[in-house]
Amino acid sequence: MVAEEQNTTFQVGVILDANSTNARVGMTSLSLALSDFYSVHRKYSTRIVLHPRDSRRQVTTAAADALNLLKDVQVDAIIGPQTSAQANFVIGLGGAAKVPVISFTATSPSLRPQTPYFVQAAINDAAQVDAIAAIVKYFHWYRIIFVYEDSDYGNGIIPYLSNAFQEVNARVSYRSVIPVSANDDLIIEELHKMKKMQTRVFVVHTTTPLASRIFLKAKEAEMMSEGYVWIVTSGLMNLFYSLEDPRIVESMQGVVGVKPFVPRSGKLKSTTTRWQNKFAEINPGITPPPEINLFGLWAYDTLSALAIAAEKVRFREPTYLQNTTALNSTNIFTTGTSQTGPKLLPEIFGTKFEGLAGNFELVNGQLQPSSFQILNVHKKKLRQVGKWTPLLPSSSSQRNANMTGFLGEELDQITWPGKSRNIPKGWEVSVSGEKLKVGVPAVAGFPEFVNTTNATNITGLYIDLFKSVMAALPYAVEYEFARFVKPDGSSAGSYDDLSQQVLYGEYAIVIGDITITANRSEYVDFSIPIEHGGVTRTQKIQYDDKINSELFFLKPLEKELWLTAIALFIFTGLALWILEHRVNKAFRGPASEHVGLIFYIPFMSLVFANRERIVSNLARIVIVVWIFIVLILNSTFTASLSAEFTTAKLEKDHTDVSELIRNNDYVGCRNGSFVYELLKDLGFNESYIRVYKQPEELDEALSKGSEKGGIKAMFSPTPYTNLFLSKYPKKYMKIGSPYLSEGFAFAFPKGSPLVADVSRAIIKLTDNHTISAIKANWTSQFNDNGPFEPSSTSISLRSFTVLFAITGGVTGVCLVVFLVSYLYKNRDFVQRISSSEMITWSKLRAMSRHFDQRDPNSFRSGEYASSRHQNPVPAEEIPSENEDNAGLNSDHKTEEDAHGSSSVQVESSRVV
Question: Going along 167-250, which residue ranges are E strands?
C-alpha cells in the first residue's frame, strides 16, 4: 500500500465509438497493454489511468468528450479520437490545452500539419499509395476509377493517389464520390454509371461500413465478375476478419488490397491468445476475431509508448494553469493549459521500441511505415500474393522506372473476381457488348488506300494495316466498318468532319488516310503514325531543248575524254603505220598517203570497215586491242547520246513557291484535305487554290497548266504523291523538299485505352516487318525515289582510264618489241652509221631512209602470188621498181633492196 501511494498517476482520456469494431478492438488492446506493461515494469514509479468516453460516431460528441476530459478530469494525454473528422476538432482542443492527442485509427494525411500536439500513432494513408500504384504498374493498367467516401478520411488520400498514378503513367478517368450517408439507391446508380464506362479498374477508399454496402451492390450489378479489378486500401484490409456478415466476404471474392506488413513473432503469438480472452471478457456475446487487427496492434503499442514516456517525465503537475481570458469568456471551448503535456510530448516523440506491430518510431509525429503486404481475398481468408518495399533512391532513374518494389519483382497468381485467373486488361472495348463501329472515308485519296465501292467488302492498304494491328493486340476486339456517307451514298463531309464523328460518339475509331493535325488532336487521340508524313509539291515535266545546240553531239563525253581518245587514236594509227610500213604493201607510198593511213585505219575500225590487210603479228595485236576499246567506247557513246535525248528537267520558270504566288499561278490539292489550309498558310490566295476529288482530275489539271484552266503545281501528302507518280511516272515529278507534317494514323476518342495498345502493336509490327510486307503487297508499283533531279550524263575520263591504259600499254610494248627486233636485225648497218663521221642530222636521215625501205623477208613472191590470187588487184595499181625506190639515195642501196625489187617485179608480171 505504501508503494502504491508513492506512484505518480498520469490521467489519460480515451475517445472511441464504443459500439464500433475499432473501439472494441482498441479498448481490448489498451486494457491488455496496460496490465501487461506494469506487470513487467512493477518498479516503475508512474502509473496510467484510463478515462474512456463514447463519441457515438458523432463529431460533436467527440468534441464534448474532449472538453470534459480537459476541463473536468484535466487529463495529461488523450488517446483517440477514432475518425479523422472527429480528430479535426479534438486535436485543435488538445493543441490549445497543450495536451498530446494520440490517435491509432485516424490515418488521414491532412491531420498532421494542424498542431504539434497531434501524434499519429498509425501509418499515414499516404504511405500506401505507392504500393497501390505498383500493382497498377505491374499489370500495365493505364486507366483508373477512384471510389471514395465524401469525408475527411476519404478526401485526404486522393491527392496522393493521383500523384502516385501519374508517376506510373496511369490516368484517373473518373472519380466516384459517395456520401457516408448514401442510401442503396444512390450506390446502385453510381455503380451503373461506372459500369457504362470502359475502365474496369476501381480503387476503393472508404470506411468499412460503406465499403461493405458498395461490394454487396456491386455483386448485384454483376460488377464482381470476370474482367473487373477492385483494389482496396489498408483501412478495409485491416478490418477484413472483423466483417460479421458472410455475404460481404462472399461479395469481395477476388478483391486485391494492401496492408502494412506485420512481422510474425513469438510475442505476437502469445499476446494474441491473451488478447482474445480479454476481448471475450470485455465484450461478452461477441466472438473474438481470429487475429488482432492492425488498429489493435497500434493501440497496444500506443499505450506502451505513453507509459514509457510517462516514466521518463515522472512528475505530474496536478492541475492546469488557468487561462485568464477564460474567466470572463462565454466560449465553451476555452480551457486551461496543461503543465505536464509540454513535458510529456517530447518524451513520446523520442520513444523507440519493438512493438507488436513492428518497430515503433515517430518521425514528425507520425508512425513510420516499412513495407506492405499485397493481399487477395480468396474464400474466407486473405492470401498474401506479394510484398512491397519502397524503392530506394537510385543513381539510375531508368532502373527505378522499370521496377515495382515487389519482392522478387513478381506477384503470386491472383484469383480475380469471377474466380478468374486470367489477368484483366483493365478496360472494355465496348461496354455494351456490341462491335466497335470503325468509320472510314467514303472517298479516299486513292482506291488503293481505302476502297469503299463495295460497302460490304471495304478493302485497301489502310484497311489491311488496321486489321493486322487489331489482330496483334493481346485481346480480341470485334469491330465493323462503316462508310462516312449521307443517306444517298455520297460523302458526308471532309476528313475533319469524319474525325469529329469520334467526338460525337458516332464512331469508336476512324481509320484511313487521315493525317495527324493540331486541330484534329483537340477532339481525338491519335495512335502513333502508321505512315510517314510530309507534303510534297508535284509539277509537270518539260523536256530540255538542249538537243538543238550545234555541239549537242559532244555532250555524251567529257572534254578530257574526247582529247584522250583523239590522242590515243593518233597514237594507234602511228603505231600501226610503223609496224606495217616495212612489211605491208598497203602501207607503202608517198608521204602524203602515210599521213592518211595513220588517221584512216583507226577511224575505219570504228565501223569495222578497213579493207587493208594486216600482215605483222604485232600490228594484229594492236588492232585487236584497239577494236575492243572502240567497241566499248562506241557503245558507251551511243547509250549516253540516247540518254541525253530523253533527259528531262523542270522548266526554269516558276519553280519556287514564292514565284508561284507572285505570278498568280493556280495550284491544286485534294478536296477535304488539310493541305488546303497549309496552302493558305504558305500565302496562296483562296481563289488560286483548286480542289479535286479524283487522281484523274489532278492529272488533267496538271496537264493543262495554269494558263489553260488547270494548275501549275499539285500539293499533296507524300503517300499520295508516291502513288500518283507511280501512275504517271513520265509526266510529273516531285519538286523541292517536303513540308513537314505528321503522318497517317488511327483516331480514337479522347482518353481511349486502345490508343496505347494499338500504338504498341504498330511498333511491334514495324519491328517484325509485317507492316512493310503489307505495304509492299499494295504499293509494289510505288516509285519513291525522291524528287527528280536532272543531272549530266556525260562520261568522264575516269571511266576509261583502265581501258586506255591497257591499249596504250599494249601498243607501246608492240612498238618496243618491233624496234628492238629491227635494230637487232640491222645491227651492222646501225653500227656503221653510228661509227661514221657524219653529223647527227645526217645519221638520222640515213636511218630514216633505211627504215623506209621494204623488208626483203616480207615480200616473197610465193606469199604475194597466193594473196593476189585471193584478192586480185589491177596491174596499174602495182608500183614499178622505180616507183618503189623513188626518192631513195642510190648510194645507199643494199643487196636486200635489189632482191626486194626483183621479187616485186616477178609478182607484178604474174598478176598481169
Answer: 171-178, 201-205, 229-232
